[in-house]
Amino acid sequence: MACKLPAQLATPGKLHHHCQFTITSAFIPLSWRRTLSPEPLLSLSTSFPSGKCNGKQLVTCSAIGTAEATGAVNLGPGTPVRPTSILVVGATGTLGRQIVRRALDEGYDVRCLVRPRPAPADFLRDWGAIVVNADLSKPETIPATMVGVHTVIDCATGRPEEPIKTVDWEGKVALIQCAKAMGIQKYVFYSIHNCDKHPEVPLMEIKYCTEKFLQDSGLPHVIIRLCGFMQGLIGQYAVPILEEKSVWGTDAPTRIAYMDTQDIARLTLVALRNEKINGKLLTFAGPRAWTTQEVITLCERLAGQDANVTTVPVSVLRVTRQLTRLFEWTNDVADRLAFSEVLTSDVVFSVPMNETYSLLGVEQKDIVTLEKYLQDYFTNILKKLKDLKAQSKQSDIYF
């Protein structure tokens, strides 16, 4: 089976013991030659990730991306762009919207790249940002969004209903190539902690491949690996507990150092202004790593009620993943289950942050803890529920 990227992005090379790609576009040609592992498990192919070369699922993802290798040159000085001009890609997401809001508060000129959608992102305009429509799966829509931009902050990720490769791989290749061609002076990319250690997980392998692609592209950049968002715990645990619905958990001792996306946004902009950070790979982690059961227990205490917990054994996830691999139309489900397996295994998604705090000039005491974040949420939501109940009683009519 031929292993290739879309025609506008790649020309497949010959298949030997692994797949090699020469990635080209109207912007910057980048030739990927180096194999990440002796037997990589993922294939960037038209039937991604089930496509196989010589019977194995593979990926090669390194680039020769210097100016000399790519032939990219500046066409001469044009109108200088202000260092405060930022393009946020994925601005409507959990992290993206916090990046936009923080950047606006700090005086940046923020442009937001969002996909055309039935419900326009009016809240971004209300905040003071400029909204431009483009789609990473359509490379021809990207260049116009970068005119007059100094820095690109890439928060985008694919929607659950679409193949992982569409945005997180093909779209990012096009975005980085375009940024190089348009003379973008800094590119911030968000990745996943430990992505280099799990080539069996499509999303994590793609994140690692994108890191390598960006590093070899020659673009001035900062790569930030993240462990987990505190905001995600609200819908997963806090709301179901308050609504007395089932809370899903696993029997694995995985520990995750969740971080408030507002803190991630603040640290990102600090890193953006620090020239010592250029070209570095940072990992942002919260003050403490938590197991699922510890998070549920904390939510129960703050909500003042017990959770209806349904535990899913890790073994069930593994079997389900194997079954979904049998059918082409369930491959994307299998990809996401593979990521779930990692999150439910005996691993710790955390790193010591002392060196990063020192590098950024940030105090640990200024980073929100999960206890404080959830306490504020439950205090506010329970007060609102109490007020609504009181208003409801005042409006009752008796005959």
UniProtKB/TrEMBL annotation:
Subcellular location(s) of the protein: Plastid
Superkingdom assignment: Eukaryota
Range of residues in the leader sequence: none
Entry GO terms, CC: chloroplast; photosystem II
Annotated NmrA-like domain residues: 85-334
A biological process from GO: lignan biosynthetic process
Classification of source organism: Eukaryota, Viridiplantae, Streptophyta, Embryophyta, Tracheophyta
Keywords attached to this entry: Photosynthesis, Photosystem II, Plastid
GO molecular function, one term: translation initiation factor activity
Keyword Plastid: yes
Name listed for the protein in its UniProt record: NmrA-like domain-containing protein
